[in-house]
């Protein structure tokens, strides 16, 4: 039983020597072993966003506080985003009302006046 353990140990030692040396006397040089790909390293086909790059290169003291930074950003967005959306939608509503008023004065009002005067055609073509 000790002979089997010794033979196994010698095979492992031989394999270790072959991995670390380019030439072992009396054997055919083995092909260089390629290490398995590391999943966290980007490949040339991977797309790394600016945010991912910034987080990956952030100093250690910032990475330690990343959760706190995300929480603060979330709170800020919850507070500021509704106001920003309301400001934009109010501006759109004002713009829409102005455009509708302009179109009504330009196109609808003359048709309504013509209808009241009785000078409008019975089936006017839509513009």
Number of helices: 4
Class per helix and strand makeup: mainly alpha
User: What profile does the largest beta sheet have?
Assistant: none
Low-confidence stretches: none
User: Average pLDDT, to the nearest integer?
Assistant: 78
**Hey, roughly how much beta strand do the residues contain?**
under 5%
The secondary-structure element order is HHHH
Query: How would you sum up the global shape?
Result: elongated
Topology, number of strands: 0
Helix fraction?
A: 55-70%
N→C terminal distance: 101 Å
Radius of gyration: 38 Å
Structure description:
The protein is an all-alpha fold. It contains 4 helices and no strands. The longest helix has 52 residues, at 66-117.
How are the elements arranged and paired?
Layout: H1 2-20, H2 50-56, H3 60-64, H4 66-117
Fill in the keyword field for this structure.
4 helices, 127 residues, 65% helix, mainly alpha
Entry summary:
The chain has 127 residues and is mostly helical.
């Amino acid at each position: 039983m000790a002979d089997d353990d010794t033979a196994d140990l010698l095979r492992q030692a031989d394999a270790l020597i072959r991995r670390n040396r380019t030439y072992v006397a009396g054997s055919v040089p083995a092909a260089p072993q390629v290490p398995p790909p590391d999943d966290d390293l980007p490949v040339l086909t991977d797309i790394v966003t600016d945010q991912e790059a910034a987080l990956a290169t952030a100093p250690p003291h910032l990475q330690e506080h990343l959760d706190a930074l995300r929480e603060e950003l979330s709170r800020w967005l919850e507070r500021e985003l509704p106001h920003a959306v309301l400001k934009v939608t109010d501006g759109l509503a004002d713009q829409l009302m102005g455009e509708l008023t302009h179109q009504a004065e330009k196109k609808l009002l003359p048709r309504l006046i013509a209808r009241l005067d009785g000078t409008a055609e019975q089936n006017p073509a839509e513009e």
